[in-house]
Amino acid sequence: MTEIIKMDDNTWRIENEFVRFFLLEGTKQAVLIDSGFNCENAKEIAEGITSKPVILLNTHGDGDHTSGTAAFAEIYMTEEDYYGCQVAERYPNTKFRKITDGEVIDLGERTIRIITIPGHTKGSVAILDVEARRLFAGDSIQNGNIFMFGDKREPEAFEAAMNKLIAINDEYDSIIGSHGDPVLDGDYAQKVLESWLDVRSRVAEFPMIDMHGAQVKDCRGKYCGFYL
After folding, report:
1. pLDDT tens column, 137-164
2. What pLDDT score does 77 carry?
3. How many CB atoms sit inside 10 A of residue 169's CB?
4. Which of 31, 50, 73, 155 is least crowded, fewest Cβ atoms below 10 Å from its Cβ?
């Protein structure tokens, strides 16, 4: 079940059960940021919104962000998540297009820039919509609970990733999350970092819960939570 919500004249968010993905349109091409959960028709949805050719760019490789991959000839994502999150195995017929930190993609009178932010996964990225001054942060910034357990994660890198985004917060006015509230204030990376440092210092205080068959700590901070 999906719902298409227009954010402005050339930006849409697609609400897809408990996750969302996004379509950004330029004058020469459009980019689909992620492709949802059990949403094999994500490409069809995007092509129903825009007449521009659509490329697929992933914030990270978790299954609830990659379900529509098979319909695309090519997927843009980091090498760490293409292999480390088994995207290569799940979608062997989709060509891999490696993205790197600082890379700029021109959509036509609209520029997006890749910012690597390992933590939630080893190859997570944020995507800066330069002219619109929006930061699409995937799962790494949200007011829900961020998954930080299992071998795909890199918790020791998360603090540095948040500081990296804080250092450029004069380049964006809002942060767009894939879970929780869709639009967050531009200072939310700082709030997530504060929550992270808080729960890491008090991790023993939080309860254990079952999460997809794993026993994890359910750690809730002031602004967001973490499963550790």
Report:
1. 999 999 999 999 999 999 999 999 999 9
2. 98
3. 15
4. 73
With H, G, I as helix, E, B as strand and everything else as coil, classify residue 139. Answer: coil
Measured CA to CA, the distance from residue 67 to residue 152 in angstroms comes to: 18
Q: Roughly what angle, to the nearest 10 degrees, separates helices 188-201 and 158-166?
A: 150
CB 68 within 8 A of CB 94: no
Instruction: Retrieve residue 6's tokens.
Output: 């227009």
**Tokens in use for 61?**
């490789």
Instruction: Evaluate whether 179 touches 140 at the Cβ level (below 8 Å).
Output: no
Q: What is the 3-state secondary structure (H, E, C) of 58-111?
A: CCCCCHHHCCCHHHCCEEEECHHHHHHCCHHHHCCCCEEEECCCCCEEECCCCE
